[in-house]
Specification:
Oligomer: heterodimer
Shape of chain A: globular
Number of strands of chain A: 13
CATH architecture of chain B: 2-Layer Sandwich
Largest sheet of chain A: 7 strands, mixed
Low-confidence stretches of chain A: none
Radius of gyration of chain A: 20 Å
CATH class of chain B: Alpha Beta
Number of domains of chain B: 1
Low-confidence stretches of chain B: 1-33, 70-91
CATH architecture of the largest domain in chain A: Alpha-Beta Complex
Number of helices of chain B: 5
Order of helices and strands of chain B: HHEHEEHEEEEH
CATH topology of the largest domain in chain A: Quinone Oxidoreductase, Chain A, domain 1
Strand content of chain B: 15-25%
Structural class of chain B: alpha+beta
Radius of gyration of chain B: 18 Å
Mean pLDDT of chain B: 71
Number of domains of chain A: 2
CATH superfamily of the largest domain in chain A: Medium-chain alcohol dehydrogenases, catalytic domain
CATH topology of chain B: Alpha-D-Glucose-1,6-Bisphosphate, Chain A, domain 4
CATH class of the largest domain in chain A: Alpha Beta
Mean pLDDT of chain A: 96
Strand order of the largest sheet of chain B: 1-7-6-5-4-3-2
Number of strands of chain B: 7
Structural class of chain A: alpha/beta
């Protein structure tokens, strides 16, 4: 990865706008791209998909936005006119992926475009830049309410709506015990969201003490470090032998695990015999109480191995999953942030210039300096 | 998009009308035609194999042009139209593919029936002009780099609407004597439960140059199938989204490319 000068983006379609980027965050899913686990990256691609800024230009068919609007930009693109957009299942949009052949071949049908997220998801230039072109701008940009800072608004682009959707999909009933694997940005937002949706108890699982500390102090969660305890046994004990009601995977395809499972998954992924390391998903299925829900928001790209289908089937589990339907949730979440019910700004631990791209990602990947999120601020 | 090559309605025998073999006016020598055909097929196939990149699409476009030029007119073998069935088994091929569009059937039909709209979503059309109620003049899009290099001129032909049922069916073919023969049929039906309109297009081709033509057809079949599917997808996108999403022209760290 490097920082280079490229031409500024221009309006290419009538519904486009150009945003001057104020803040652009790294995301755990970028690590899948940089690690080579998503095959449709090309040298020269601009990454970054979680961002906010100011509208500086709009195309002739943009109706709701004007120059000077301060907006948060949804990471997922949606045309608004197709069957899936009409159902508010925006990341399933039929039309927003400019290179639909990839996912049509890999998944049977094409899925929505996402900024800076490989050519499989449209090949759109991402937001780690001074300016970014925004397709379907009226559907993609959301005006930030006065009084909400750039830092607080930023994570309503992706981390908050993604975490919120995970909790929403978990089908939380009042008093439920909700377990969230992964105490990164999305996981923490899923914990806040679980409380908002009526959870009686929230348990966070991770391996980094500083992240578990954030879960405990910011998101009021009980915490388990999977390096220190047997997670399945601990969860069973904590729930009186009954098991957690709702299990949320906020980790995805590069899960860390321990023992023989770790060696097995790393070896197979290294040899490209499986794309994804599904340790969290397996554990969530095994941990979940009978009749409970497993909600998957951590990203998977391809095939997984040793999937405990027997446990899932015989326990009557419900699965919900998907890339975020951001447009469905962002207005509500901006409102929650404006009221001060949740302030995601604490995720921003390191604000850096674009030139610091490598350092920002290195800290984030290696979990050094208690990094939660590196955020690039092109304008300083 | 579904690929349903066997589902369209069986031919109505009453409409059967055997055509006299078409005499093409050619302006490219035979050797040039064969070279152009094979080279074009290879180029288009190569482009199709790399179709996930705009570069691949460009190759397909250039190759398709050369093939059109080389065969100097595909004989259509659309079974749906019952044109020239004598050639149906001699190496020709036929493509049927469909797409569902979340718009009312009359609106979808009207957009297509306004033939001037076709170049907005058909990648290889430059222009279509309706000349009277049934006839129209079609001009193919020619990649500029190819034109300059090969000193080729525009490809144009005239077509007529053979059958038309308002809001449900349009069938056309190019006129005999056209340099390029182009034919097709599009059916419009309601998707179940108010889920829009199913558009099913059938396009047939027959290469007339014997073994070389058949080889080209074999190579090109997947490429043409892909072209037809992509055109239908672009049609859907234009109607549902109001524009066709693109990344061509955006910045990247690749200095030599425009996306």
């Amino acid at each position: 990865m490097s920082t280079e000068s490229v031409p500024d983006p221009t309006i290419l379609n009538p519904r486009d706008a150009i945003v001057r980027v104020f803040l652009s965050s790294v995301c755990g899913s970028d690590l899948h791209l940089l690690g080579g686990y998503i095959p449709a990256m090309r040298a020269g691609d601009i990454i970054g998909h979680e961002f906010m800024g100011e509208i500086i230009e709009v195309g002739p068919e943009v109706k709701k936005l004007k120059k000077g609007d301060r907006v948060v930009v949804c990471s997922v693109l949606a045309c608004g006119g197709c069957e899936f957009c009409q159902r508010e299942e925006y990341s399933l949009c039929d039309n927003s992926n400019a290179e639909p052949e990839w996912t049509e071949k890999a998944y049977g049908y094409p899925v929505a475009g996402i900024f800076g997220y490989s050519h499989a998801l449209g090949g759109y230039a991402g937001s780690h830049a001074e300016y970014t072109r925004i397709p379907f701008a009226d559907n993609t940009c959301f005006k930030v309410p006065d009084g909400v800072s750039n830092e607080s608004a930023l994570f309503t682009s992706d981390a908050f709506p993604t975490g919120y959707m995970a909790a929403d999909f978990a089908g939380i009933e009042p008093g439920d015990t909700v377990v969230v694997w992964g105490a990164g940005g999305v996981g923490l937002m899923a914990m806040h969201s679980a409380w908002l949706l009526g959870a009686g108890r929230v348990i966070a699982i991770d391996q980094y003490p500083y992240r578990l500390e954030q879960a405990r102090t910011r998101a009021n969660a009980e915490v388990l470090n999977f390096r220190e305890v047997d997670v399945l046994q601990a969860l069973k004990e904590m729930t009186g032998g009954r098991g957690p009601d709702r299990c949320i995977d906020c980790v995805g395809m590069e899960a860390n695990s321990t023992g023989i499972e770790k060696i097995y998954d790393y070896a197979k992924q290294y040899a490209r015999l499986q794309n994804d390391r599904p340790a969290v998903l397996r554990q969530a299925i095994m941990a979940c109480r009978k009749g409970g829900t497993v909600s998957v928001i951590g990203v998977y790209g391809g095939f997984i191995d040793k999937f405990p289908m027997g446990a899932a089937m015989n326990k009557g589990l419900t699965f919900r999953m998907g890339q975020q339907f951001g447009q469905r949730y962002i207005p509500k979440l901006l409102d929650i942030v404006a009221k001060g019910e949740v302030d995601p700004a604490y995720l921003l631990t390191h604000k850096l210039s674009l030139d610091m791209g490598q350092e920002g990602y290195m800290m984030f990947k290696e979990k050094t300096n208690n990094n939660m999120r590196s955020v690039f601020a092109p304008a300083g | 998009m579904a690929n349903t090559s066997k589902t369209f309605a069986p031919p109505n025998q009453n409409q059967y009308e055997k055509q006299e073999p078409t005499k093409h006016i050619t302006n490219v020598g035979t050797t040039g035609r064969v070279i152009s055909l094979l080279g074009g097929a290879a180029l288009a196939y190569n482009g199709w194999a790399r179709k996930n990149s705009p570069l691949g699409k460009g190759l397909t476009a250039a190759g398709t042009y050369l093939v059109l030029r080389g065969v100097s007119g595909f004989c259509p073998v659309s079974k749906a139209l019952q044109i020239d069935t004598a050639h149906a088994d001699s190496g020709g091929f036929e493509i049927t593919t469909s797409v569902t569009i979340l718009k009312p059937r009359n609106e979808v039909y009207q957009f297509w029936r306004q033939l001037e709209n076709l170049p907005k979503f058909m990648e290889y059309l430059e222009e279509v002009k309706q000349t009277d109620a049934r006839r129209s003049h079609w001009v193919a899009k020619v990649p500029k780099n190819i034109v300059n290099k090969e000193k080729l001129t525009a490809i144009a032909w005239d077509a007529e609407i053979l059958q038309e049922e308002k809001d449900s069916r349009i069938a056309w073919r190019s006129l005999p004597n056209s340099e390029v023969q182009n034919s097709g049929e599009v059916r419009f039906t309601d998707a179940p439960a108010n889920r829009g309109t199913v558009v099913q297009a059938t396009i047939g081709y027959h290469p007339p140059l014997g073994a070389a033509g058949q080889l080209a057809a074999k190579l090109l079949n997947p490429a043409f199938e892909e072209l037809v599917k992509q055109d239908l997808r672009r049609f859907k996108r234009l109607l549902e989204a109001g524009e066709i999403p693109t990344i061509i022209g955006q910045p990247s760290g690749r200095k030599d490319e425009n996306y």
